[in-house]
Specification:
Blueprint: E1 2-4, E2 8-10, E3 13-17, H1 24-32, H2 34-40, H3 51-64, E4 68-72, H4 86-94
Parallel strand pairs: 3-4
Antiparallel strand pairs: 1-2
Helix pairs in contact: 1-2, 1-4
Length: 149
């Protein structure tokens, strides 16, 4: 948290729809390295010195320097993002803590260990192993817990 003489303590908050957590490793590099981000910019679309390029660099800096970042479309254990815990990956890269609160969960047979992972070598299926430390029992009263039908 920063402080300014005119305003006092300032908490910087940002939000970003991260597009289904695609390319999360590139996102982590872009937010932790201005040089890496700059190298990812399409020179034809946003040439050096252009208004668009300057706006892109400004927005990158705002995201990278935020105290709290709310992200939408973060994945955990989903095929489209390589079964990566994307919130954890990005938080660790940025040196931040994180909380994951999904609006919806995709139940994937690979994540449940019922089907082999797509990156398994031919003839040697690898199955996903669940990290029990990631999942906590609900502390809600029984009447408020989800019921399986």
């Amino acid at each position: 948290m920063q402080s300014t003489p005119a305003l006092g303590p300032v908490l910087r908050v940002a939000t970003w729809n991260i597009e289904k957590s695609l390319n999360i490793n590139q996102v982590a590099k872009a937010l932790t390295s201005p040089a890496a981000y700059t190298s990812m910019i399409n020179e034809k679309r946003a040439p050096a010195g252009s208004h668009l390029r300057e706006e892109m660099l400004r927005q990158r800096q705002r995201l990278a320097s935020a105290d709290i970042v709310f992200l939408q479309e973060m994945d955990i254990g989903v095929n489209r993002s390589g079964y990566v815990d994307t919130a954890r990956t990005l938080a660790h890269a940025m040196g931040m803590n994180y909380a994951y609160a999904p609006q919806a969960l995709e139940v994937d047979p690979v994540l449940l260990g019922q089907e082999p992972r797509p990156d398994s070598p031919a003839g040697k299926p690898k199955y996903h192993s669940v990290d029990p430390a990631q999942y906590k029992a609900s502390s809600a009263p029984p009447s408020c817990r989800a019921t399986r039908l």
